[in-house]
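Protocol step 4 of 6.
Sequence for ABC transporter ATP-binding protein (Actinomadura sediminis) entered exactly as in the expression construct, tag removed. Do not edit the line below.
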Amino acid sequence: MSELTVTGLTVRFAGLTALDDVAFTVAPGSVHAVIGPNGAGKSTCFNVLSGVYKATEGSVRFDGTELTALRPDKIAALGVARTFQNIALSRNLTVESNLMLGRHRLTKAGFVAAGLRLPHACREDARHRARVREIARFVGVEEYLAAPVAGLSYGVQKRLELARALALEPRLLLLDEPVAGMNGAERVRMAEVIRRARADLGVSILLVEHDMGMVMRLADQVTVLNFGKRIASGPPDEVQRDPAVIRAYLGG
Ligand code: ADP
Ligand code: MG
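Step 5 output, structure tokens:
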């Protein structure tokens, strides 16, 4: 089980401090939510954790390894997988191909050997396909495995993004607004998949979310950001009643 520890995290863009001395810990096997109004720095935080942005100052440690100097592919190889606020799938490929691409780093034989249909590569390929089917079933997209992504509903595509992250066999999942733009039924379904990812697969989850209901249902701990600063942290029911949090959301 893996712990993520963020300390003193500061990110400055020209003339703007997007994150200011932020600290939090994601305990092993837990769901930790990062919430806050628009522009609070939530996505910036994700982009630093996944290696897309560089931290100006501070430290991000995952299982004792410092992540701030590492490239995105190295961070993913350590078992940290992410989804994006806006869907980032290959739209012309099938669901299965998207999930196989998600397993790229796990493929020992490599795609060239697989393409040449060498026997060891074929066996490995078959194993990956079987696992991809299991993951597709887990998130409820198995029936679409042979379908191109472009024709699928928004809700299915969002679940597929989660499946693609799970295809990396991560120990920590970073989910950026997983239910944004979804209707009520799709939200309930996604919440259930996230709950099971933690319960059945044992992954730790860092969740950036706008939907307070989702946060209340899923999170063990919540960190609240406003204008790049941490203004509260604790269990969801406590944080929800915190006057500073209420003020931030009301824009006061
Ligand atoms: P949130 O996800 O909480 O809505 P963001 O992390 O996207 O907030 O943005 C925090 C602040 O940082 C915003 O003021 C945003 O405009 C700014 N910001 C984010 N990314 C960049 C960037 N690449 N360059 C300059 N400013 C950025
Ligand atoms: Mg955002």
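Step 6, annotate. The chain has two domains: 1-79+170-252, 92-169.
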